[in-house]
């Protein structure tokens, strides 16, 4: 069965590819001829996730799933949250992380969590799956892998940031892989019933 991943973020595609199992053929937006920016205007992570999946289902009629994710920092009342991608006013990951570190300067509460909400639209029926990983915001970036806020986020129980891990290691506990595992379990149950 074909499933389109409604994302323009190549890093998300790289993390999800290979984890869907053999029952599903992963299609990209490019594969289905979609060159559009996906709408993200609801102001919430679950809302934006639904909006992106709805867009692809409505315009292209293919079963699909979307990922909306964000970094929620406790001392900043959950910022950047749904605004993670454009926190500094641009998509520049270094500027976004710098703004975050500047706002947290001198603050000993470094608690944060990454959240992913996947919205699956399977033959027109919608389901959502959430994944969360808790960790700490470092005082300066470390590592060159990954994307976004990976260099400043260290998951609890580890001594390396996401940017110091391979994709496989990050997938071992990340917010995205946790949401994906729930979605894959649901898809497999559907396929076998
Ligand atoms: P799509 O909407 O096309 O999927 P996007 O990059 O705009 O791609 P989001 O709206 O979900 O995706 O933006 C979330 C932002 O949060 C993303 O651009 C990163 O800056 C950050 N982010 C999300 N997941 C992350 C991760 O696993 N590691 C580091 N930063 C992440």
Features:
binds inosine 5'-triphosphate, single chain, six-stranded mixed sheet, Maf protein, alpha/beta, 30% helix, 193 residues
Can you characterise this structure?
The protein has 193 residues and is an alpha/beta fold. The protein has a single domain (2-192), classed as Maf protein. It contains five helices and six strands; from the N terminus they run βαβαβαβββαα. The protein has a six-stranded mixed sheet. The longest helix has 18 residues, at 175-192. It binds inosine 5'-triphosphate.
Ordered list of secondary-structure elements with their pairings:
Elements: E1 2-5, H1 10-16, E2 25-27, H2 45-60, E3 64-73, H3 93-104, E4 111-122, E5 125-137, E6 153-155, H4 167-171, H5 175-192
Parallel strand pairs: 1-2, 1-3
Antiparallel strand pairs: 3-4, 4-5, 5-6
Mean pLDDT: 96
Largest sheet: 6 strands, mixed
Silhouette = globular
Q: How would you spell out the order of helices and strands?
A: EHEHEHEEEHH
Binding site for substrate: 7-12, 69, 147-150, 170, 175-176
GO molecular function: dITP diphosphatase activity; ITP diphosphatase activity; metal ion binding; nucleotide binding; ribonucleoside triphosphate phosphatase activity; XTP diphosphatase activity
Family: Belongs to the HAM1 NTPase family.
GO biological process, one term: nucleotide metabolic process
């Amino acid at each position: 069965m074909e499933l389109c991943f409604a994302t323009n973020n190549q890093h998300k595609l790289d993390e999800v590819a290979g984890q869907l199992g053999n029952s599903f053929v992963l299609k990209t937006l490019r594969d289905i001829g979609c060159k559009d920016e996906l709408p993200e205007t609801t102001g919430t992570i679950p809302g934006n996730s639904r909006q992106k999946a709805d867009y692809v289902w409505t315009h292209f009629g293919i079963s699909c799933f979307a990922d909306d994710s964000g970094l929620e920092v406790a001392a900043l009342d959950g910022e950047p949250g749904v605004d993670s991608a454009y926190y500094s006013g641009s998509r520049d990951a270094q500027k976004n992380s710098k703004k975050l570190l500047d706002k947290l300067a001198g603050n000993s509460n470094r608690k944060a969590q990454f959240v992913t909400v996947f919205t699956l639209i399977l033959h027109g029926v919608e389901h959502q799956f959430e994944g969360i990983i808790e960790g700490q915001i470092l005082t300066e970036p470390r590592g060159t892998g990954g994307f976004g806020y990976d260099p400043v986020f260290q998951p609890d129980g580890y001594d390396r940031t996401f940017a110091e891990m391979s994709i496989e290691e990050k997938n071992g506990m990340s917010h995205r892989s946790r949401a994906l595992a729930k979605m894959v379990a649901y898809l497999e149950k559907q396929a076998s019933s």
